[in-house]
Design goal:
Elements: H1 4-14, H2 17-29, E1 33-34, H3 35-42, H4 46-58, E2 62-67, E3 70-75, H5 77-83
Helix pairs in contact: 1-4, 3-4
Protein name: Transcriptional regulator (ArsR family) protein
Keywords: DNA-binding, Transcription, Transcription regulation
InterPro entries: ArsR-like_HTH (IPR011991), HTH_ArsR_DNA-bd_dom (IPR001845), HTH_MetalResp_TranReg (IPR051081), WH-like_DNA-bd_sf (IPR036388), WH_DNA-bd_sf (IPR036390)
Length: 94
Amino acid sequence: MFDNELRVKILKALADQARLEIVRTLYVEDKEMGCGQISEGMGIGNSTISYHLKTLREAGLTYTRREGQNRYITLRKETFEKYLPGFLETLVKE
């Protein structure tokens, strides 16, 4: 049986243009990225990016690693593969 509560969280998290752009950036770069790198690339302030990253993390779409005061973000590709197979590939701009 699928976890419908998690599905709803995932879909709500992805129903935002800024969060989709964060996911796209992490997928295209295919590496762990610092919050500052993501923020600078999108032109979004630190508090706003923190909110979006928290939403993605709580939906199980990203993983956050802390090192001192720095936070590093990676995609949880296994979550996308399980609940949204093929979705990440649709984010690549042609």
